[in-house]
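User: Reviewer 2 asked us to show a designed sequence for the structure in our supplementary figure. I'm pasting the structure tokens here. Could you produce the per-position amino acids so we can include them in the response letter?
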């Protein structure tokens, strides 16, 4: 669930079957005067658009029953609810939800058409804010993917430590010291400080420095974990590995930043 602000109106966006649905109940608050979703559904053009969308995207759509309902559009007595459409025609473009985030929701394709019914200006702004939301989600997803990759490579790194740097007779506490020491080789090479130094510098932050790393830093860290595992397997001493990894970190961060700058210039 997410929320966007459109012309001072807070609008809820939820996921249904991995698709984005936008609250019509929230959007309607931006409409001046008394206005209901059922009023919008009485319009023949509205029903035609929904019907075409359902035929394209919904294999279980009961278009025969839908056409019967649509044929009555325009009559003074005609009125249809979202619940009735769902029950009679199996539409998926509209959903009536109950509970904490209850209300009428529409697939984004339909919601944008509903926004036009409110006003052309409102449609422009809701499309703009929705796109901004998706861009932010994409950035977050990218960061999470890089963080997970770094975690996977961390296991490769610790496995190399286990098989090459930890004698069998060490206690668990002594083993932890070696793991922490090798983790700090990467921390110092990339971030310029140990885990303890970062915690001392940032006492109010939760987690560790890697939780606050940029995507470029996570890419570099992932590469360095693999390289350090190779260096450990080759028997290079820690001091030599630290120097090599620091040089690699500087070079890779420069390249990644250059690539990012090129994208911004396009």
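Assistant: Here is a per-position design you can include in the supplement:
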């Amino acid at each position: 669930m997410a929320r966007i602000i459109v012309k001072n109106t807070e609008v809820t966006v939820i996921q249904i079957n991995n698709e984005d649905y936008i609250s019509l109940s929230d959007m309607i608050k931006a409409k001046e005067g008394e206005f209901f979703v059922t009023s919008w559904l009485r319009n023949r053009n509205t029903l035609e658009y929904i019907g075409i969308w359902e035929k394209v995207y919904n294999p279980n759509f009961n278009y025969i029953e839908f056409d019967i309902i649509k044929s009555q559009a325009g009559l003074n007595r005609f009125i249809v609810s979202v619940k009735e459409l769902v029950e009679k025609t199996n539409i998926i473009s509209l959903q009536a939800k109950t509970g904490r985030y209850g209300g009428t929701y529409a697939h984004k394709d339909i919601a944008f058409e509903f926004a036009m019914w409110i006003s052309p200006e409102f449609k422009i702004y809701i499309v703009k804010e929705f796109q901004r939301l998706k861009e932010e989600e994409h950035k977050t997803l990218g960061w999470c993917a890089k963080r997970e990759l770094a975690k996977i490579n961390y296991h490769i790194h610790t496995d190399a430590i286990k098989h090459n740097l930890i004698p069998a007779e060490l206690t668990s506490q002594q083993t932890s010291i070696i793991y922490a020491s090798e983790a700090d080789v990467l921390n110092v090479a990339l971030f310029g400080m140990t885990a303890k130094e970062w915690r001392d510098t940032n006492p109010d932050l939760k987690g560790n420095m890697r939780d606050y790393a940029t995507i470029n830093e996570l890419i570099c860290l992932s590469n360095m974990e693999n390289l350090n595992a190779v260096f450990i397997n080759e028997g290079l001493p820690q001091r030599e590995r630290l120097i090599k990894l620091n040089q690699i970190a500087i070079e890779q961060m420069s390249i990644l930043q250059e690539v990012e700058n090129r994208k911004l210039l396009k």
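For the response letter, you might also mention the following. The two ends are 33 Å apart (CA to CA). The longest helix spans residues 120-164.
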